[in-house]
Amino acid sequence: MEKVRWGILATGGIAAAFAADLVDLPDAEIAAVASRRAESARAFAERFGAARAYGDWESLAADSDIDVVYVATPHVAHRAAAGLCLQAGRNVLCEKPFTLNLRETEELVALAREHDRFLMEAMWMYCNPLVRRLKALVDDGAIGDVRTVQADFGLAGPFPPAHRLRDPALGGGALLDLGVYPVSFAQLLLGEPDAVAASALLSPEGVDLQTGAVLSWESGAMASLHCSIVGGTGGTASVTGSRGRIDVPSGFFHPERFVLHREGHGPEEFTAAPADGPRTTLRHEAAEVMRALRAGEKESPLVPLEGSLAVMRTLDAVRERIGVRYPGEEMTVAV
Q1: Catalytic residues, which ones?
Q2: Which of 11, 25, 243, 266 has its CA 20 to 30 A from that of 231?
């Protein structure tokens, strides 16, 4: 099978983790890398065997010998970086959160459709085989009608004010960096909520140090979600239905196992495949992108664009309720 040629835009930690997984995929090739610092691009290219290194984003976007670009910048730059690539005719996998706000995500989706390009948010949780198994069980009615979803993701910190997680100019705060996972998990199972309530502890800089949100649906289902950069949590999740429950004891966005409890049965444990290791890697989302490109698809059924738009609407609604707004930001505020 002919290899899919990847361009990687940015050279930070997540880019390196993704590149390491691409190296292990026999049908993937890292063709080029770009950074705003030429020396960083050259070092990254040498480390991962990329043929070309660029000291600017524009050269990567213009490289016609690339099949798809992985955008791994901080999320405050996603709109600019992904938009540049889409306008140049490149297919794009863009890190999450997709953008800073809903308006920017809408603009990227419009650009992808205007230029007839593939676009996907790098919500690798949705491509994880064990998460997909959990969703299939819920969809098949294994626990009946979903009543509640609980999920948390918190880091202990403390992070100094200059850290990117506390810097408003970089879209700092717990919600966009960590809270996107609990929100995406709840919406994977229940879709977009009908109502959003939220409260937060804000930093002196005006970003959220921790946020709690309650999402609710007309069906009566509710989700209780939490994220923090001032307290380490277990990364747990639980889905309760009318006839059972699924518990994810840790790392719900890359779980090693989960336990199904249902009427008339003992606890049933589902575990990750040995090849996935202690931390499920990013290769599943890369494989999904390559599958979709070969099939001529413009978006992935596992991470559909409408789902990413719905998550951004919820994140915007939460921020509106907790009073977080970034410098120079224009938002389309969800009700």
Answers
A1: 96
A2: 11
Q: Give the integer Cα–Cα distance in Å for 255 and 263.
A: 24
Q: What is the model's pTM?
A: 0.95
Amino acid present at 238: S
Longest Cα–Cα distance of the chain, Å, equals 62
Cα 333 to its chain centre, rounded Å, is 21
Q: Which amino acid is at 115?
A: H
pLDDT in tens, 196-248: 999 999 999 999 999 999 999 999 999 999 999 999 999 999 999 999 999 99
pLDDT tens across 48-61, in order? 999 999 999 999 99
- 171 closest CA partner among 90, 101, 256, 69: 101
- 55-74 as b/e: b if 16+ CB within 10 A: eebeebbebeebbbbbbbbb
Place of tokens 């738009």: 309
**pLDDT single digits (tens) 16-46:** 999 999 998 999 999 999 999 999 999 999 9
Contact partners, residue 166, CB within 8 Å, separation at least 6: 159, 160, 172, 173, 203, 205, 207, 229
Tell me how many degrees the CA angle 24-25-30 measures, rounded to the nearest 5: 85
User: Which has the closest alpha carbon to 79: 64, 97, 58?
Assistant: 97
CA distance 92 to 82: 7
What torsion, rounded to 10 degrees, do the Cα atoms 204, 209, 210, 211 define?
60
